[in-house]
Amino acid sequence: MEMSQIRYVLAAAKHLNFTKAAAECNVSQPALTKGVKTLEDELGAPVFHREGRRILVSEFGKSMLPHLQHIADEAEATRALAQNFKLLEKVPVRLGVLSTIGHVRLARFLAAFEKQHAGMELSVSEASASDLKDQLTEGDIDVAFMTMSDELQKDFRVQPLYSERYIVVFPPEHRLGRLNAVPLKELSGEDYVDRLICEMREMVMSVCQAEGVELYARFRSEREDWVQAMVLAGIGFAFMPEYSVTLPGLLQRPLVEPSVDRTIAAITVPGRKHSPAVGALMRASHSFGWPG
């Protein structure tokens, strides 16, 4: 039994005409008729009754057609999977990541994704929120992992991944380390390390102003590693997303009264068709066991 013979039978059953079936299968009518007869001989009974130029599906043929259709569907699905696998390897995925997102948990996701799709080429670049939006729009990256916002939801396709709280990080032996959680007002007048690149910085600062909390920035930096290093050195405290802390030794306490959090999402351009590789990344990011 050959796939071509199955295709001939299904086309003939569809048109009830060998000539039309041959045209659909892009073969000559004698070739199609021969293929159908060969399959009927192998099955041991006629699939069609011939009445001159007119053909009818036999009772035996009616019982066989669903099985033959299933074989054809499975073969097509197998071909599609094979083609997609080839495309996964040939077309790289360009992932842009917000620079304030913690690397440890993202690396775990990327490692799991690579194991599932060995051989796929993946490039990862860091940028600010505004730069990532521009890169998505211009087609320089395929997907961006960044903080979800109302503005993004208006202009892009947003797939939430996980949420994380903002916490307060202190140097060892800081007086507020005795607390299980730190109310915002407790930080008024404390030495402060300012994370300039934080996409939620203006919101946090406006909350501080509304609550009458005065902060004195003794150090400012756009680099997350420098911010954490200066906190650990005793310069002051910093606000950070809880999954972005990477430096051992820092004291971490939840920020409360009010609490602040953010949602990290996978962002793509609406209406832009995903390549098989990008589609695989989006499905994997949706099903991955993210923190929280």
TrEMBL record:
State if Cell inner membrane is listed as a keyword: no
Question: Which Pfam families does this chain map to?
Answer: HTH_1, LysR_substrate
Cellular component (GO) terms are: protein-DNA complex
Going by the UniProt record, its keywords in alphabetical order are: DNA-binding, Transcription, Transcription regulation
Instruction: Spell out the SUPFAM superfamilies in the cross-references.
Output: Periplasmic binding protein-like II, Winged helix' DNA-binding domain
Task: Give all residue intervals belonging to the HTH lysR-type domain.
Answer: 1-58
Q: Which residues form a coiled coil?
A: none
Q: From the Swiss-Prot or TrEMBL record, what is one GO molecular function term?
A: DNA-binding transcription factor activity
Q: Which InterPro entries match?
A: LysR_HTH_N, LysR_subst-bd, WH-like_DNA-bd_sf, WH_DNA-bd_sf
Query: Does the record carry Transcription as a key word?
Result: yes
Similarity annotation: Belongs to the LysR transcriptional regulatory family.
Cross-referenced PANTHER family: HTH-TYPE TRANSCRIPTIONAL REGULATOR CYNR, TRANSCRIPTIONAL DUAL REGULATOR HCAR-RELATED
Protein name (Swiss-Prot/TrEMBL): LysR family transcriptional regulator
Lineage here is: Bacteria, Pseudomonadati, Pseudomonadota, Alphaproteobacteria, Rhodobacterales
